[in-house]
Queue: 2 jobs
Job 1
Amino acid sequence: MRAGKWLRKRAVMIFAGIVIAYTLIPIAIIVWFSFNDPSGKYNYTWEGATLEHWQNAFGLPELNDALLTSLRLALLATLISTVIGTLMALALVRYQFFGRRSANFLIVVPMATPEIVMGASLLSMFLVYGITLGFQTLLIAHVMFCISFVVVTVRSRLIGFDRSIEEAAQDLGANPFITFWRVTLPLILPGIVAGALLAFALSVDDFIVSNFNSGTIVTFPIFIYGAFQRGIPVEVNVIATMMFILTLGAMAFAVWQQSRAAKLASVRPPQEGEALVPVPAGGAAAG
Amino acid sequence: MTTLRRRLVPYFLLFPGTFWLVVFFVLPMYFMARLSLDTGTLETGFRFKWQWSNYTDALSLYDSQFLRSFYYAGAATLIALVISYPLAYAIAFQAGRWKNALLFIVVAPFFITYLIRTLAWETILSDQSPLLDVLRSLGLVSSDGRLLATSGAVIAGLTYNFLPFMVLPIYASLERIDPGLIEAAKDLYASTWAAFRRVTLPLSAPGVVAGSLLTFIPAAGDYVNAFFLGSTNNHMIGNAIQGLYLTQRDYPAAASLSFVLMALILLAVFIYIRFAGSEALMGEEARRA
């Protein structure tokens, strides 16, 4: 009877625990199999531990090339989509203008379109014009699907922005450009960084759109797809594990930074949706 | 002069992004539509001829792949919903100071490349896996039965890969609910279950709708899970489109298939929103009554 009550009270938590385990098991397997020592070419059964593949992580030239291509592509796509997306977000939040609704619509639709349709239609256009597929077409495609996500991320930061700070800067004689550079930009920077990180992650991870528009260029996901039939090298697991740890580290750093910023800003409790920024004690008195 | 300049500012800001999206997202749709009505082969070249038969051919040749795509994506969405709701509920209402850590774990799979995540399921479901041994000894799988290369494997992969898309919107909508509303229901002698069914559930409906769409749309167009975890008998429409575009190079057929896929997904989304919308509305009425 008592046990039954205990179980009923915690049923949701127990179920959640099982789902969490389900979420983590495949990740654990990827990490675990990066230490595998398969005798054949397939890395699907555990055959004994070795550090060999960790020592040889960057010893496969083909894989290295794919990684470098992915990195180069993601950096460029992130840079371009972050700049373009931030400008769009500024326009959409700060101005009332004719065509605003259509612009919003244009940003939402790519996020709701299946990747395969985006990839296939872009390829169709390149085919009609006889454009050779390669790094440029990949870059075009990656910027295209990143823009919307940058706009949405930056926009959510801009919405809670206290514009009286800008007015104060202008009252003190700053021209619009200096106001933007020295006041607005630093304040919305967390949003821009979040958008850029999201764009980078989307680009590195993308397979379907890339598969259609890559030509002979091989990115990291395309390498994995191509290696599937002939057996995926254990080094892929090693690199996936490294990327996982790196992302965890970056996330932990971001959380630590935010909590530090929150502490600095604690003089004035942040409004909902507002960027967490340090506000000097003198400024807080006005608010 | 200055007012004119002021009014033009948003257009300048919007121009680069709008240009990119129009030229590389909207315009390609037109070219795909045109390509889908071409006739010819790769050798003879393709010519535009209003070849509507491409569509009827595509539908009759690939009807089983279409059905499978919607069946797999629908099943994956449903399973993800059943799994995600209690998890999102636990994170929103019962996790306390573990909330952020749990959210972190929910998105952790995204830190591993999509294709490698899918390959992990290949290991879990493989013919030598301990899971298969357990299921066989329990008699749930016959002694020569397999887990890999089945519909179940593809659905499992799809469910796992898109699970965070389901959990996060549901969590966000649950998080926004004012706990006072649930307390009020209980003060008015609603049982825990009745309060959940008539207050919490209707208020979280927008999250359920968003999560379902975010899971269903990418799942229906996916071909990675079917390629890695299924046999050719489990191929989805994405596999057909990819093969036609990149291997057989029958572009008109491939383009018409893509168009039909997009139309069917839009239709499914539209029907779902109408259905789910009225459902949410009923919840609203129930709450007022």
Job 2
Amino acid sequence: MSWRLHHIVLAAAGVAFLLWCADGVELRPREVVHAVPVIASYFGRMWPPRWEFAQSVWKPALETLYVALWGNVLATLVGLPLGVLAARNVVASAPLRNAAKAVLNLFRSISELIWAIFFVAAVGLGPFPGAMALGMNYGGILGRLYAEAMENVDAGPLEALQSAGASRLQVFAFGIVPQALPQFVTYNLYWFEVAVRSATVLGMVGAGGLGFELVTTIRLFEWRETGLILLVILAMVSVIDLASTAVRARIY
Amino acid sequence: MIAIEKLSKTYPGGVAALREVSIDVKDGEFLVILGPSGAGKSTLMRCINRLVEPTSGRIVHDGREITAHGRKLRDVRRRFGMVFQQFNLVKRLSVLTNVLTGRLAYRSAWRSLAYNFSQEDKRIAVECLARVNMEGKALQRADTLSGGEQQRVAIARALAQQPAVILADEPVASLDPKIARQVLTYLTQVAGELGITVLCNLHQVEYTREFAGRVVGMSRGTVVFDGPVTALTDDVLHRIYYRDPDAATESEA
Amino acid sequence: MSAATLDALVGATLHRAAAQRARRLARAALLAAPLLAALAFAAGQIGMNPLAVARGVPFMWDFLTRLLPPDLSYVPLLTRAATESVQIAVWGTLLATVLSIPLAILGAGNTTPHPIVFHATRMFLNALRSINELVFALIFVSAVGLGPFPGVLAIAMHATGMLAKFSAEEIEGVDRGQVEALQATGAGRLQVILFGVIPQVVPAFVSYAIYRFDVSIRSATVLGLVGAGGLGFSLFKTMKLFRYHETATCILVIFLLVLVSDWLCARVRAKVL
């Protein structure tokens, strides 16, 4: 009897919380019903895409890829050392590990757009600060994933190395790295795909890539041009998705 | 010779894995430690190469106390080669590299990071592989081998340490009987040739009867039998494998 | 084994090992060369070089000193925006969770009613996934006006794509045995899906939905850039007004918000699973 009451109270609290949230974001059934056809009509206006616009889009599209590529490289450079320092089975000192984790958390929780604003303010407009922004945000994400991958390796071989008298550093090099490496590559490939999607909006704050064209066409209500850009993004992401699946299948 | 004196280990949480265990092991002996799982055999082995720190008691090897703090851990460990139930090879590395990891304790950490080993180390590694007839598969990845082959490589890895003692912790528990006998044959043969002392944990009586010289029987963290394999009577086995209900209530109280 | 045969054996094996190492190095170089060339080319195209990084450092430092310390008196003014970000993430994720269930079933090879439906659904999900929340938000703001409402829809769209594709793949990976056992009892198609497939994917689905909420919180903190509500709006407003100490406060609040949601999500996930 009492547990039932407990559940009813909990459910009521949950519903109340959701209603409070809905009120806060102006989400009302009537508005949603009204909005759906309006939004659908906006997507309708994007068809057919303005194919000629491809001429002025292919360059920023490539730039998006370059930004994502270097963002990924920088993220590895940022994430790898921090991830190693944060892994329980690599670093014995808890304060050092926690410090590394705190830095990773800081990098991770600040969106790439905020990082981009920071770097644009520091080094000026262009794709380069965009790559740096991706490097920081995704470095934080990758670093944490790297650390988890290292902590989750099979502990048996590590014990064997230890029992043979290997030092901590040797256990790391011969036990942890070879076991975690495929996981690292998988994460990098997956986050490259995500980075390409992110790189398509960095242009909104002046950090290169397609984002600038995207914002401009939407602000100018050039919907058919917007449609083409969205198609280009879709094509890029799909190709990378296929390529990374193919690579992932081969690394184990 | 190894002298284990009144060794006890209580894990955090109060589980007493070893209670005042005393065993003397002579050089070149093939000693089987027989007992059911949970008898404390693994803990005993891990105390010997200090993967586990004992709560009390001491272990003396060739007049030097292993359990004394401050002794260089790597020096202690490299004199004891270890063979595990799950083989514990690094699966994505080649067989040869796995055996070469047995040489790590002899080399400085920084130089070995590049996976560069001296000619001498490589020579030793291939020799050890040849002793277990695995040199033909030296360049294959470890995960392409069968279980028995992996365990032979693991024996080669222990040999590459040029150890005085091999600690084999249930080395054949994951293998089927035919392969298990083959692996134990390699282990006894190689140890005999090189004069290496072997401490081997087993829970199967048949293998013990076939391969052991001397047997130490363990139950619930204590030694309940110590003698030649010929003295392993049914009565003794009963003592090793069946728990005395009175003793159980007493220790759990 | 005699010393001579052993020597020969060791020599032969080491020779093979050296040859293998050389082959591997050559192959690695062959793979690495085009990759490095591509990286170098890309670096040139986006104007990136170590010198540029070095030149940027003093400017970054300068900017950082203007940001710090954060103006803590601004915190009370941010509570409304922070709450809004959370509310956006809650409803965005909730809508996505609801929408992704039918889409996942239609988009999984073993539960889809027809291959055409399967391909169409996957295509649609790919489109949702590849378009960033901010792009959706930008379009929705144009369609229905400024405010958190288009932000909710934007998060919902993108999260639906991610969640539905993930769940569809989970559905495809379910244990066939349990499904066949149900089919053997003569259960209908929908019954098999309801009782054989869904229970198997629920834990992974819930876990991923919680993860998605965590990601949505982070996204919700920047939607304000395009006028779709939340903390982002305050962030960009203070920046445009050069009130950098207040900007730093925004970043601090975002950091704390993400940290708390991270911790909370980990707790909930541990409890649910």
